[in-house]
């Protein structure tokens, strides 16, 4: 399955019968307008007329529509799912755009100028000429406490955000610490509270002052929001329970990296497991450069 | 001393239906005003208009704010009004479920107002919650329990704690003892009276129970069909009622 | 304690043409006249007994002065601390409350309290409302309850479950806890034993001696003779029905 890692010389021809990047130009224009508004009001959820996509909701239809709307023929696309380039979801979306738009695709973070992702931000810092598109299932951070959309919108309009700390308070009172590890709420540009999509809170600090544009698309909930480059993003916390990111006691078993987000991989039925980088591209490149983790030390592969 | 709240010619109509008509009164610091009348007499509509929860059709509700003097609360911007409602004001609903978040702990319910106005120290918020739970006679050991596990009386006391934690000056109460057993009512009334007294709170209490009005209020307003038919010192209105409707109301109370 | 001291001959209370009728709207618009044209003047240091048969309007008159009943006509003037007069018949609720807190005390026949409030707090409340500190008020309350022979074991209990005599003593202690310049008494010695009746009479005499103007209803002839130095027959003002 290497047909999609196509380089400059072998640009695939888009499938005939589809408009460039599947969506019609009218829909793209509508979505681009929503994106412009989202960029203009950082963290604000802009409603948009989400289209039917040839895959079910929950598979990243919001992110795909955003990507389709900003994609140009000369772009290079990277798609990751939980940090990995080779899971079903990532592969499907990458092939989808290779087929319908004929754009180049890559697994290398720095080669891509558009990165669509589900649940992770690459370990390698992004640059000003890159755009990261995040898939979002539930865009409304206030939803868990306030089921009425009219009311949550009013709360955003009025910066009426007391309930967000109620959630963190509950965490501490139950568990002695803030246990929210994913979709950890952030304050964007000192104005809007935003759900960072189910990325681990480990990635929250990367969102702040990121040189790249961050776009968020929620297909089922029909919302688009954005963090423009170099925007302040602050994770909510208490003075006596400050925000902190996850840390692991051991380095990546394969590449030896520390201070990266790791996945636990089960090795056998006896409970044996190892921790490896969640960002597959980052891990592979380190191994290519000769770094070795404890699991492969002494191996000469 | 001057007024804390001034209501002038307040009218609320729902289409052709009148909620309340041409109501005026003043409330001074430390005063408790009771509004009585049968259901449908417009007392809850009046309360909601006074408390900024419902826009009146006519008239004004002017409040003496801490920093800006007298302001018509219906002319305020929404954020200003919300801020006022969760700092200087309190609203105690008849049904505690309407005034509590049932899916978060008692402590979070009490702490929410503090967090909403910027409290960001968990330890301080928790201590304030513990303090208010004990002041409203809720066992502080229940701080991490959900209100759904509380009895009706405890839920009502929790609602009061949640409201008073921000140190309000004006409390609106809509049938605060409405759904409670008689034995629980007495305890709640005594607690309310003591808190109002010790904190120097002003209050507007809507009730259909004349005994509640007598116990909590110094002044009484009797409403019938959306209009105020009699007003005055609570004990005088109840002991020497002048209007036919008030006489009927007073003489209809069963004596135990 | 700073007790207000008035000139022995200073007028405290003055009623001019006070009239009361009850209009019963729901009982065939009946009008029940009670008293007409009551005139009286009461000086500091005087204790006046209202006389008359049952139903002659004695209690009604007391309640009108306390602001508990409205006034159909006439003036009910009470002397303010600065020497000016306020008409209770026209006073708005806030003024009535202020006068009740500082100038005008009332011992009714029945104790009306909130369940659960401790006796000591029931008794000390008027003094606290008049501006005294918690501890000062409680000390004074304790002093009165001791004089009235109410066992200390009962002080932390609510008086709602007390006997009639005990409740009446709580009521009296509450009425005497603050040194009001004017005091209204509605049968203060009813349902009391001999010993406690004497304590109450002593309290009344002490109040009189400090210069309080007292207006009371005393069915008990001996008590009346012991404390009163003026008498007024309310029958004189009985309205023609």
UniProtKB/TrEMBL annotation, chain A:
Superkingdom, taxonomy of origin: Bacteria
GO molecular function: 4 iron, 4 sulfur cluster binding; alpha-D-ribose 1-methylphosphonate 5-phosphate C-P-lyase activity; metal ion binding
Record function comment: Catalyzes the breakage of the C-P bond in alpha-D-ribose 1-methylphosphonate 5-phosphate (PRPn) forming alpha-D-ribose.
GO biological process: one example: organic phosphonate catabolic process
InterPro entries named in the record: PhnJ
Keyword 4Fe-4S included in the entry's annotation: yes
Reaction equations catalysed: alpha-D-ribose 1-methylphosphonate 5-phosphate + AH2 + S-adenosyl-L-methionine = alpha-D-ribose 1,2-cyclic phosphate 5-phosphate + methane + 5'-deoxyadenosine + L-methionine + A + H(+)
Enzyme Commission identifier(s): 4.7.1.1
Entry protein name: Alpha-D-ribose 1-methylphosphonate 5-phosphate C-P lyase
Pfam family, one: PhnJ
Similarity comment text for this entry: Belongs to the PhnJ family.
Keywords: 4Fe-4S, Iron, Iron-sulfur, Lyase, Metal-binding, S-adenosyl-L-methionine
Automatic annotation (TrEMBL), chain B:
Keywords noted in UniProt: ATP-binding, Lyase, Nucleotide-binding
CDD domains: ABC_NikE_OppD_transporters
Domain ABC transporter intervals: 5-250
One function term, GO molecular function aspect: lyase activity
Keyword ATP-binding: yes
Lineage: Bacteria, Pseudomonadati, Pseudomonadota, Alphaproteobacteria, Rhodospirillales
Organism this protein belongs to: Hwanghaeella grinnelliae
GO biological process, one term: organic phosphonate catabolic process
Gene: phnK
Pfam families: ABC_tran (PF00005)
Entry protein name: Phosphonate C-P lyase system protein PhnK
Keyword Ribonucleoprotein attributed: no
InterPro entries according to UniProt: AAA+_ATPase, ABC_transporter-like_ATP-bd, ABC_transporter-like_CS, P-loop_NTPase, PhnK
């Amino acid at each position: 399955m290497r047909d999609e890692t196509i380089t400059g010389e072998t640009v695939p021809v888009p499938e005939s019968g589809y408009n460039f990047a599947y969506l019609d130009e009218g829909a793209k224009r509508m979505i681009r307008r929503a994106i412009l508004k989202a960029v203009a009001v950082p963290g604000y959820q802009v409603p948009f007329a989400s289209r039917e996509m040839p895959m079910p909701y929950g598979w990243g239809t919001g992110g795909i529509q955003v990507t389709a709307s900003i994609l140009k023929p000369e772009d290079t696309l990277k798609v990751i799912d939980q940090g990995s380039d080779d899971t079903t979801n990532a592969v499907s979306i990458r092939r989808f755009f290779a087929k319908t738009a004929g754009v180049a695709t890559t697994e290398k973070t720095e080669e891509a100028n558009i990165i669509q992702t589900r649940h992770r931000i690459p370990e390698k810092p992004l640059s000003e000429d890159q755009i990261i598109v995040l898939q979002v299932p539930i865009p409304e951070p206030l939803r868990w406490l306030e089921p009425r959309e009219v009311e949550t919108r009013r709360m955003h309009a009025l910066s009426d955000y007391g309930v967000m700390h109620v959630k963190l308070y509950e965490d501490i009172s139950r568990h002695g610490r803030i246990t929210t590890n994913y979709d950890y709420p952030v304050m964007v540009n000192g104005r809007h509270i935003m759900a960072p999509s189910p990325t681990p809170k480990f990635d929250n600090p990367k969102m702040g002052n990121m040189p790249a544009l961050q776009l968020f698309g929620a297909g089922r909930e029909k919302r688009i929001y954005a963090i423009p480059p170099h925007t302040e993003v602050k994770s909510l916390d208490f003075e006596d329970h400050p925000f902190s990111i996850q840390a692991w006691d051991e380095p990546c078993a394969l590449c030896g990296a520390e201070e990266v987000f790791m996945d636990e991989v089960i090795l056998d039925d006896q409970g044996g497991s190892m921790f490896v980088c969640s960002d597959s591209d980052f891990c592979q490149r380190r191994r290519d450069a000769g770094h070795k983790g404890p699991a492969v030390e002494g191996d000469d592969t | 001393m001057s007024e804390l709240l001034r209501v002038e010619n307040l009218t609320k109509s729902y289409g052709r239906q009148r909620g309340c008509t041409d109501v005026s009164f003043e409330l001074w610091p430390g005063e408790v005003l009771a509004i009585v009348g049968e259901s449908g007499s417009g007392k809850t509509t009046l309360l909601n208009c006074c408390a900024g929860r419902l826009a009146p059709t006519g008239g004004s509700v002017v409040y003496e704010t801490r920093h800006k003097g007298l302001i018509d609360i219906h002319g305020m911007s929404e954020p200003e009004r919300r801020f006022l409602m969760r700092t200087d004001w309190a609203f105690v609903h008849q049904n505690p479920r309407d005034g509590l978040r049932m899916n978060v702990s008692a402590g979070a319910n009490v702490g929410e107002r503090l967090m909403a106005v910027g409290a960001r120290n968990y330890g301080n918020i928790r201590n304030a919650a513990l303090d208010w739970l004990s002041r409203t006679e809720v066992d502080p050991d229940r701080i991490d329990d959900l209100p759904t596990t509380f009895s009706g009386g405890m839920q009502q006391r929790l609602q009061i704690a949640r409201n008073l934690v921000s140190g309000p000056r004006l409390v609106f109460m809509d049938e605060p003892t409405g759904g409670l057993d008689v034995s629980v009512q007495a305890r709640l009334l005594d607690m309310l009276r003591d808190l109002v007294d010790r904190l120097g709170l002003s209050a507007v209490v809507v009730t259909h129970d004349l005994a509640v009005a007598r116990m909590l209020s110094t002044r009484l307003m009797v409403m019938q069909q959306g209009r105020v038919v009699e007003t005055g010192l609570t004990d005088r209105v109840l002991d020497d009622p002048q209007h036919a409707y008030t006489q009927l109301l007073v003489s209809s109370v069963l004596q135990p | 304690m700073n007790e207000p001291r008035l000139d022995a001959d200073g007028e405290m209370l003055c009623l001019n043409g006070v009239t009361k009728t009850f209009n019963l709207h729901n009982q065939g618009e009946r009008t029940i006249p009670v008293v007409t044209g009551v005139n009286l003047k009461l000086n500091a240091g005087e204790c006046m007994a209202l006389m008359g048969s049952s139903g002659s309007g004695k209690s009604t008159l007391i309640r009108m002065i306390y602001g508990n009943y409205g006034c159909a006509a006439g003036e009910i003037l009470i002397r303010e601390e600065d020497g000016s007069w306020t008409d209770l018949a026209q006073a708005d609720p806030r003024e009535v409350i202020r006068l009740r807190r500082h100038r005008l005390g009332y011992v009714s026949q029945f104790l009306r309290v909130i369940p659960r409030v401790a006796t000591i707090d029931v008794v000390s409340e008027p003094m606290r409302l008049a501006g005294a500190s918690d501890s000062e008020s409680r000390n004074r309350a304790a002093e009165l309850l001791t004089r009235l022979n109410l066992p200390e074991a009962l002080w932390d209990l609510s008086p709602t479950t007390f006997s009639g005599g005990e409740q009446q003593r709580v009521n009296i202690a509450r009425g005497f806890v603050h040194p009001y310049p004017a005091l209204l008494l509605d049968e203060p010695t009813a349902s009391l034993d001999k010993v406690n009746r004497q304590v109450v009479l002593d309290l009344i005499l002490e109040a009189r001696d400090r210069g309080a103007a007292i207006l009371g209803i005393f069915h008990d002839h001996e008590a009346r003779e012991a404390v009163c130095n003026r008498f007024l027959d309310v029958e004189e003002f009985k309205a023609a029905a």
